[in-house]
Amino acid sequence: MAKLDPIAEFREDHRKVRDGLLDIIKALKAKDVVTARQILGNLNVLVGPHFRYEEETLYPTLRTLLGEYVDQLIKEHDGVIDTARACATLLQKDTLSDKEATEASNAARAILIHVSNCDGLAILSERLTPEELDHLGTKYASARAAGVPLLDWAATIR
């Protein structure tokens, strides 16, 4: 079995999240709650293993390069999780008011900033040793194999 390339997979996850957030914004603009709910569900499944990998493995590894900035990244995760919970609750409704749709769209845009900032960690990861990268790949694969969605992970494991 080929080893997982943690940098390539990390960046691909960010592309999927970026696209999902842009698609949610589009669905919210059209007030298509069903589509927005489905996209959020897909992101919940994708982002759970991603956040778990970041917090349990990547961030501790990068602490030697980033120092206390890692703590800021974890705080950003707190905000993303809170936003995802609020959006999940909001999208349980059958319809949204203009204000609700706009606020949810703005929240998705705010998360895009974290995605963009976080993707920059890939360039730092390139400076890790082959052994560290192998370890990251193994842990990333393990987080994916566990497959715990974001909101479940945040509520029960984190």
Quick take:
By secondary structure, this protein is an all-alpha fold.
Keywords for this structure?
7 helices; mainly alpha; single chain; 158 residues
Beta content comes to under 5%
Shape: elongated
Number of domains: 1
**Helix and strand succession?**
HHHHHHH
Commentary on this structure:
With 158 residues, the chain is an all-alpha fold. It has one domain. The protein contains seven helices and no strands. It has helices at residues 6-29, 33-66, 69-90, 98-119, 121-125, 130-146, 150-156. The chain is elongated and about 50 Å long.
Task: Chart the SSEs and their pairings.
Elements: H1 6-29, H2 33-66, H3 69-90, H4 98-119, H5 121-125, H6 130-146, H7 150-156
